[in-house]
Amino acid sequence: MRRFLIAFLVLSWASSSSIAVDTGSTPHGLAKDPLKFILGQENLGPWRNGVSEDAIAEAPGPELSGPHSTLVLAGNRTNRPDILSGFKHYRDGWDISNRHYWASVGFTGAFGFVLAILWFVFFGLALLVHHCCGWQMTIKDRGSPNSQRICLIMLLLFTSAAAIGCILLSVGQDEFHGEVFSTLKYVVNQSDYTVQTLRNVTEYLSLAKNISVAQVFLPSNVMSDIDRLNQDLNAAADTLAEKTSKNSGKIRRVFNAVRSTLITVAAVMLLLSLIGLLLSVLGHRHAIYLFVISGWLLVAVTFILCGIFVIFNNAISDTCMAMEEWVENPHAESALSDILPCVDQRTTNQTLVQSKQVITDIVNVVNRFIYTYANTYPAQGNLYYYNQSGPMMPPLCYPFDSALKDRQCGSQEVSIANASLVWENYTCQVSASGICTTPGRITPAIYTQLVGAVNESYALEHYAPPLLSLQNCDFVRDTFQEITAIHCPPLESHLRLVNAGLGLISIGVMLCLVLWILYANRPQREEVFAKLSLPIKVCRNFKSNTNETNINGGNNYNKNDNVRHDTESHNTSSVF
């Protein structure tokens, strides 16, 4: 998993700004990138043709000819050994496009991977020697109750540690999963807001193209600019929505899989430790070896997972710190510059000038009609005669002066915000032929056209700031501030809890495996009874043999006495 968590959550949304989308070709045959347009690289499309170069030149901004300084993001945190560079320290800061950065982050999880390898090899060799060579792992002084009691206490202690680790892992992964999805939801909502802003501007611009007040239209070059701009805006909105949906789906699948894996590990390890404890206490020597082998493999897996989540934790901390430092220096050259190509103040002002120029063109159309036709008395038969009469109609206020700076409306002007309400008082009633039958300066049909033009000006005036916030990265900066302040701390805390759970499980089950074998091989009650009864049997056999010897000796004495008596009798009879 190359990009994860915040880098994948936030930057997958933001990085879509740097993905080229072929929406057509420029007059020079070059592919256009609508998202670069949104972020300022194409500066609101071809409206730049009508921009005042003097106004742009007066805009404050950084000197383009000055030396460019590169901002190293999270430089202190990312100063780690780089495996790919012979373990030299990596000093280029946070950069997800740099493989040396990922090598340095991966080094932080090496401890877990090394432990997994050592455990797998050495404990596997111990099991092999035990099985093939008959090497017995037993308690010294097996008949001692104290040794067995100490072994049982340690077994209960380490089993409890493994169980606590399973609980911590379950709680930590649940909180981590919830916070990840909360962060994802926030980013998706921000993306949806951006897409909706673009679509709103597109909708209003499409209506602006059709603005006509009594056959007075916008200049043809402005209408052509609007067509091309709408194409860019629609492509940008579609691309951003597509990338957001695609990336959010990938993120959900990845972290659902991570959650399932952690839940499975916690459940299996808990059952393994409890059943292993029960079998070792009951002395099932053969069954316990099956659990020992399973635990041997699962402990290696938990060590690997522990290393992976250490990498997760460091990468998230790096990303949060990088975002925090970038928020303070959004226009500095950094690793985020390629992903979020924020423009400088001069380019931002250029975009603002262009949007103001279009609003001014719309106000020109409205006031041209008011001064030329509404507030005059054309003769009957004139194309624009509809029996205009009554008080003069106030013109629409120009929101900007000749230098395109904000200006206050005059006393005889109506602002864009309340023009529709004021002009309604100057509307007459018309006959079937469209001629005014009551005093008024405009007909209801013309009033509708004027209100449409005013609404377009109002929309452009109020949607220009959101577009500018996209271009100068104010919007992204606010998003990053929200993430670093609200979402980063709990994410790091939950990851530490997951790591603590994995560590307890690994160490607890690892020590339990050894104690299972030792305690399962302790002397059973039958063996102890057999050992105690052996001397008694020996004594009984000795006594039995002694008695038999004595009896046999007495019988032999009687036999010899009888023989001697018979001999004496025989001799006596012979004498006589």
TrEMBL record:
<keyword id="KW-0472">Membrane</keyword>
<protein>
    <submittedName>
        <fullName>Uncharacterized protein LOC115726959</fullName>
    </submittedName>
</protein>
<feature type="region of interest" description="Disordered">
    <location>
        <begin position="549"/>
        <end position="576"/>
    </location>
</feature>
<feature type="transmembrane region" description="Helical">
    <location>
        <begin position="289"/>
        <end position="312"/>
    </location>
</feature>
<feature type="transmembrane region" description="Helical">
    <location>
        <begin position="262"/>
        <end position="282"/>
    </location>
</feature>
<feature type="signal peptide">
    <location>
        <begin position="1"/>
        <end position="20"/>
    </location>
</feature>
<dbReference type="GO" id="GO:0016020">
    <property type="term" value="C:membrane"/>
</dbReference>
<feature type="compositionally biased region" description="Low complexity">
    <location>
        <begin position="549"/>
        <end position="560"/>
    </location>
</feature>
<feature type="transmembrane region" description="Helical">
    <location>
        <begin position="101"/>
        <end position="129"/>
    </location>
</feature>
<feature type="transmembrane region" description="Helical">
    <location>
        <begin position="150"/>
        <end position="171"/>
    </location>
</feature>
<keyword id="KW-1133">Transmembrane helix</keyword>
<dbReference type="InterPro" id="IPR040283">
    <property type="entry name" value="DDB_G0292058-like"/>
</dbReference>
<keyword id="KW-0812">Transmembrane</keyword>
<keyword id="KW-0732">Signal</keyword>
<feature type="transmembrane region" description="Helical">
    <location>
        <begin position="497"/>
        <end position="519"/>
    </location>
</feature>
